[in-house]
């Protein structure tokens, strides 16, 4: 039953290619940008490095306006209804301007995402990410910060905030201290710190890293351009 719509999805991609060829633009398009095979991207990556590459390529497509939007239709929803095998797990900020699947051109069932203001490695998030990696098999654990992060800025300002918002600050303070008032550096440092915290606070995650079943990586999303710039994390 699910075969029919799946074929029509592929057909529509093929028609797009045909259209390019008909206009004599295929050669130009391949010169101007990398070529991604839809068939290849239908299969999950098999190694941690391949999983990380898949994310980087997805963001390149997003930034260059060449998204493939694979796994974003109802066929995919039905295909994975009984079982999920996300290839990457995320600790990202709750900011409404950083929707992780869109930023990396991924779809249903590809990413196991936890989001919290300031992308902090609180206990509950660590527990979720242990589930996403150890149980579901995600091969890359990615900490994604972003430019002009409100949680980092609020920690830096240190002014009084309502409710339980200040509960976030304790996680972000070390990065703010190290950055000495530089907001950009504070965001980068916070990504590094949270990545380190994930490994330090979770024997499950650190064991997977040691066994080379998992890569921990980090990056900063630019609210202006949509580009994710890697942050060296050195987590072991
Ligand atoms: Zn934020």
- The ordered string of helix (H) and strand (E) elements is HHHHHEHEHEHHHHEE
Backbone structural class: alpha/beta
Cα-based radius of gyration, to the nearest Å: 19 Å
Ligands bound here? zinc ion
Structural domain count: 2
CATH superfamily of the largest domain: Carbonic anhydrase
CATH 2nd-level architecture of the largest domain: 3-Layer(aba) Sandwich
Helix content: 40-55%
Helical segment count: 11
In words, what does this structure look like?
The chain is an alpha/beta fold and 236 residues long. It folds into 2 domains: 32 residues, no CATH class; 187 residues, Carbonic anhydrase (Beta-carbonic Anhydrase, Chain A). Helix content is 50%, strand content 12%. The protein is built from 11 helices and 5 strands. A 5-stranded mixed β-sheet has the order 2-1-3-4-5, sandwiched between helices. β1, α6 and β2 form a beta-alpha-beta unit. α8 packs across α9, α9 packs across α10 and α10 crosses α11.
Key terms for this structure?
disordered N terminus; single chain; five-stranded mixed β-sheet; binds zinc ion; 50% helix; Beta-carbonic Anhydrase, Chain A; 236 residues; 11 helices; 2 domains; alpha/beta
Layout of strands and helices, then pairs:
Layout: H1 3-22, H2 26-32, H3 38-42, H4 48-63, H5 74-79, E1 88-92, H6 100-103, E2 111-115, H7 123-135, E3 140-146, H8 150-157, H9 169-179, H10 183-201, H11 203-210, E4 215-221, E5 228-231
Parallel strand pairs: 1-2, 1-3, 3-4
Antiparallel strand pairs: 4-5
């Amino acid at each position: 039953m699910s075969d029919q719509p799946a074929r029509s999805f592929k057909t529509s991609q093929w028609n797009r290619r045909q259209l390019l060829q008909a206009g004599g633009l295929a050669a130009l398009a391949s010169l101007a940008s990398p070529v991604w095979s839809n068939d290849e991207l239908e299969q999950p990556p098999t190694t941690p490095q391949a999983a990380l590459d898949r994310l980087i390529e997805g963001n390149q497509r997003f930034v260059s306006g060449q998204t493939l939007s694979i796994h974003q239709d109802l066929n995919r929803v039905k295909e994975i209804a009984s079982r999920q095998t996300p290839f990457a797990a995320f600790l990202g900020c709750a900011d409404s301007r950083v929707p992780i699947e869109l930023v990396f051109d991924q779809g249903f069932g590809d990413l196991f995402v936890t989001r919290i203001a300031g992308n902090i490695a609180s206990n509950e998030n660590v527990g979720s990410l242990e589930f996403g990696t150890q149980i579901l098999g995600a091969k890359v654990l990615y900490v994604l910060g972003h430019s002009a992060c409100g949680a980092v800025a609020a920690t830096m300002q240190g002014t009084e905030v309502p409710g339980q918002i200040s509960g976030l600050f304790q996680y972000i303070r070390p990065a703010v201290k190290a950055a000495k008032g530089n907001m950009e550096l504070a965001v980068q440092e916070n990504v590094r710190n949270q990545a380190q915290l994930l490994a330090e606070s979770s024997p499950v995650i650190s064991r997977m890293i040691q066994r080379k079943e998992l890569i921990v990586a980090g990056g900063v999303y630019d609210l202006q351009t949509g580009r994710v710039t890697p942050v060296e994390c050195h987590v072991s």
